[in-house]
C-alpha cells in the first residue's frame, strides 16, 4: 500500500498545480491532516523546492494565512524525440515549459551506442545553456521509432531501428547523464501524450494516428494512455485492409494498412507512376504543389486508413482523432479520404461529436509527450519520493 | 476535491476486502490518521454495518489489538440481466455472492413500463425470499440489450428494443423499488465486467465479445471498462468486413460484421441453404448435431469476426479474448475461424501471450457484471456516502 504521507504530498501538489496556490487551511481540507502535520509536510515540500511561499491570501481579520504555490522550475526534464533521421532534445520545467531545445540530424542505424551518446551530449550542453545543473534533472523521457517493451523500456524487434533490438536505453542514458529516472515509449504513444497535454487537455478520449513511413496509433481513453498487455496497443500498421491481394508488406504478410498507405508504400506507388520521389517529404511536396495524381493517391491512402480507423472508432469511441506524422503535412486530401470512410462507415452515435483533425503540433508533440511522461511520473505517488 | 474522510474510508474498506481483516494499527498506517480519528472512523464503519469486529490478532504482549473485517452481507445488490426474451434477476451481497436468483421469460418489445414492472416484482419477491429488506439494497445494476447513454442511463435508439428509446430506466426502477442508486449499461459491457470479476480478476486487459443476434464487445483496459466519449465503445457490429457487397445490414449499410456473422444473418444464410432454423438456438443445435454445412458456416462467421478482432487486438493488445453470447455455445467451429484470422493477421508481439477462449460463465456473466457495477460504485469515493 502507498504511504499515506506520499499520497497527501502528491494530492497537495496536484491541487496547487490546478489552483495555482493554496492556503494552509486548504491543504488541511484536502488531506485531512492535523495542523502540525500540515506544517511539517509543507516544510518538506518547501525544502525540496517544489513548493514556495506565494504572497498572502485575503485575510478575514487577524494574521493573514500563509499561501503556497507549486514551483515548476524546481527541477528540469530532459525530453527526447528520436526519429529515423532526427533527434530533437528539449529541456523543460515541471509545467511543460520548454527552456531550450535543439534538433540534430542523426542516422538511427548508427545504433544505440552512437545515437544515445550524441543525444546525451546535446542534453548536457542544453542543460548548461539553460543555466541548470545535471543534479536538477527530475528524469529523462524518450520516444523511439519502434515497439518498446513496456516493462523494460527496451526496443523489441524494431523494424526500422537496426542494431537496437533489446538495447538497454534506460541503463545507457542513466550511465551517460547520471539520471536514474528514464522513461521510454514508442514515438506514437509519446505523440499522443504530447498532443493531449498541449492541445486537448480536457478531452478524455483521443486517438492520435501517426502517418509516416509506417502507421501507428496511440489512444488516450478515459484520460489514460492505453498500453495493452505487452505495451503494443495501437500498432495498427499491419491490420489487413485488402484481402486476396499480392501487395507485400515489410512484415511478411500481404494487404497490410502500411503496405497500402504508409510512406514507403506511397513512394513505391508514386515511382510506379513515373513520379520522382525518394522521401516522405518529396511525397508531401508533390501533393502541396498540386499534382493531381499525387493528390488522388493521398486520398486513396486516407480511405485505407479510414477503414482501420472506422474499426477503432467503433471499439474506442473517441471524441477527437488527430492525424499526425510527416504525411499529415500533405494537407486536406489525406484527411478527406479518412473522413469519408470513418463518417460513412460508423454508427451515428459514435460520430455525432467526433472531430477528425490534423495535428497542430507538427514536430512538437513527441518531445512534449516525452516531457509529459516524466512529469506525470515524478509527481505521482510512485515517483515523488525521488524529488524529496 | 473528494473529502479526505471519504478517501480514508474507501481505502480502509478496500484493504479489508483484499486482506480479509485489519488491526487498528494497519488502519492508521494506511490512512495516516491519528489514533482518535481512526477510532471515530471505525466506529462510523461499524455503525453502518460495513465493518465488524473479527476476533483478535496475535498480540506482541499487553492487550491484544482489536481486529476488524469487511462485512459483505451488510447490504444487498439487485442485479438484472435483461435480454430480448429473458430477464435474469439475482440478489447478491457486496462480495458477489448470489443469495438467490430467478430466470423469467419476457418480451422486450412489451416496453419499459411492463418489463421493468415485472422485473421489479421479481426483485422484491427475491429480496423477501432471501430474508432481506428493500432498505438494505445498496443499489440496482441492470444490463440492457442495446446502446445506453452513459450520462443518463437511457437506451439510445436501441434497434432490438422497440419502445425503449430514451426510457428513464433509472427513474422507473427507483420509483418501483425505492432504491436511489441505479446503474445501467449495455449487456456486453456488463458481461465483460462479470467475466472479468468472476473468471479473470487478475487480467488487466481483456476483451469480451458477445456473438448473439448482434455482435458487440466490451473491453477492460488497464483494469477499467472502456466507455468512450458517448458510452458506445465496443459497438463493433457495424464495422465493414466486406467491400463492394450487396449484403444489407439492419443499420442501412452493407457488408457490416453482423450482416455476415450475427445470429440473424446466420439464420438467413441457413434458410437459404434449406436448413430449418428460426432461432439462434436452432443454429447452435444444428452445429452441435454435427451438420457439416452448419459447421462450415460457423467457421466462416468466425473468420469475419476474426477480421474485426484482429484490428481490435492491434489497437488494444489484450491478453485474453472471451467469446460469449448464444452462438459461442456452438462449440469449436466459431472459435477456430476467429483464431485462424486473429493469429494469422496480427503481429507476433501482440499475440505471443494472447488466449482466445469461450466464455466460462454462459448465462451468468451479465448478472454478475450488473452486480459488479453496483459494488464498484457503492464502495468507491463517489458512492460510499449513501451507505453510511
- Which blocks of ≥5 consecutive residues of chain A have pLDDT under 50? none
User: Greatest chain-chain interface?
Assistant: A-B, 58 and 58 residues
Treating each run of at least 4 consecutive H or I residues as one helix, how many helices of chain A? 13
Oligomer: homodimer
Give the CA-based shape of chain A: globular
How much helicity do the residues of chain A have? 40-55%
How far do the termini of chain A sit from each other? 19 Å
Determine Rg of chain A (CA atoms, Å): 23 Å
Estimate what percentage of residues of chain A fall within beta strands.
15-25%
Concise synopsis of the structure shown:
The structure is a homodimer of 388-residue chains. With 388 residues, chain A is of the alpha/beta class.
